[in-house]
Amino acid sequence: MRLEDATLALEPRSVGAAIDLAILFYRRHAVKLLSLSVLFGLLPVLIGGYRATHGDGWIWALVLFFFGSAFLGAAVVAGAGHHVFGEEFTLKNTLRHLRRRLGSLLFWLPAARIVLALLGAMCWGLLWVPVGARYGFLSEVLVLEQLRGRKIAKRLEEILKSTHVEACGRYFAIASFGLLVSTVLFLFLDLGSQVLFGVPIFLAKVSWAVAYEDVTNLLSYDPLLVSVLASTWWLVYPLARLAWFFCYLDARIRREGWDVEIAFRVEARRIA
Asked: What three-state secondary structure class fits 233?
């Protein structure tokens, strides 16, 4: 990566600024990011919808999203990361970068998700955020920094050295933001389908007198509900992953002084 080719200002950013930048980036490259969501998420959504006919649709949808979103995140990092440093953001370039690191991605990403699931489930889920933040920059280290073996764990520790608590706060804020956006999108699709097409997805099917039983049955047996709900996860995830990627840039800017280095290079050119 050449810092002088950066297409955005390399400066420290708060988590709010990272989310704002992610929204702007998503809006500008919406077609490409939506294409990545469809490419990686279409099959899991279809499988979840099909399994709903067997009574375990939401479980399949959740498990497939949990593991499959790691690869979608790597694709977002590959495309956005190289675009930030001057390369055109296209599906072809994104998939080319992924193919170069395919072996490492196929090993490390599922392994990290398994560790996250096992450790995160301890203490009633209280370890989810610390463990998630600890391994959150794995795609950046694999795809952008292209490290291998023991260097990966060492690099992850180095990036978050003395800032792990702050990273946990950012991770929780971005996860909450993604969950909120996904919920709003789902309700919007639900109401839109009911009003425009007369096809209820969720709210109109629930009798609030026995809401728990209705919701449980719908999540287990309703293919339409499972498919639409899972689709919102896949569509919103790139937005949250972009925000976390910009937090990675912020971490490197703060630790490695990219903004100062850029200023020195500009001043050196001016003097020359």
From this structure: helix
